[in-house]
Amino acid sequence: MWKKIQRFRALKPPAQGLFLRASVLLPLISISLKWRGFHPTKALLERFLLASRGSKNPDAQALASLTARMVRAAGYYGIGNPNCLSVSLALWWLLARQGIPSDLRVGVRKEGAKFEAHAWVECAGVTLTEPEAKHQEFAAFDAALASLPPETR
């Protein structure tokens, strides 16, 4: 426990803030996904977004990378065991709150008789939610499909 506290204290204040926000956000998103489902959860998160003007910060990619690292750390050290969709929604929302445009992606694959889904976040063509290329094994849904109202799908 002491080592975890020391590691947290060694972070710079912006990273500490991102870690704490993600630590609170991840369990809330996980609960909302279980009780309400994906679309109501995403709609609720969108209600709390400021009008996005895009990031004018020249270090937007570095900030996006730091945010992704802190969300992954919060998922690892925080409460519960959030799935890829919870982590991706939290990262997507935190980036949007910072004015950094990103895309929430969901993909599927069929492995034998097993059907699997995976979620990740892309920012300027770079995948942020995972350091490895796990998402490349999944066929991503087209963005146009994701934007359709639920009653037409």
What's the short story on this structure?
The protein is α+β, with helices and mostly antiparallel strands and 153 residues long. The chain has one domain.
Map the helices and strands:
Elements: H1 2-10, H2 13-35, H3 38-47, H4 60-77, H5 84-97, E1 103-111, E2 114-123, E3 126-127, E4 139-140, H6 143-146
Helix pairs in contact: 2-4, 2-5, 4-5
- The mean pLDDT is 82
Count of extended strands: 4
Count of alpha and pi helical runs: 6
Largest beta sheet, briefly? Answer: 4 strands, antiparallel
End-to-end distance: 47 Å
Number of domain units: 1
Strand order of the largest sheet: 3-2-1-4
Envelope shape: globular
Poorly predicted parts: 144-148
Judged by helices, strands and strand pairing, the structural class is: alpha+beta
How does this structure look, described?
The chain has 153 residues and is α+β, with helices and mostly antiparallel strands. It has one domain. Helices cover 51% and strands 15% of the residues. It is built from six helices and four strands. It has helices at residues 2-10, 13-35, 38-47, 60-77, 84-97, 143-146; strands at residues 103-111, 114-123, 126-127, 139-140. Strands 3-2-1-4 form a four-stranded antiparallel beta sheet, covered by helices on one side. A hairpin with a 2-residue loop joins strand 1 (103-111) and strand 2. Helix 2 packs across helix 4 (60-77) and helix 4 runs antiparallel to helix 5 (84-97). The protein is globular. The N and C termini lie far apart (47 Å). Mean pLDDT is 82; it is low at 144-148.
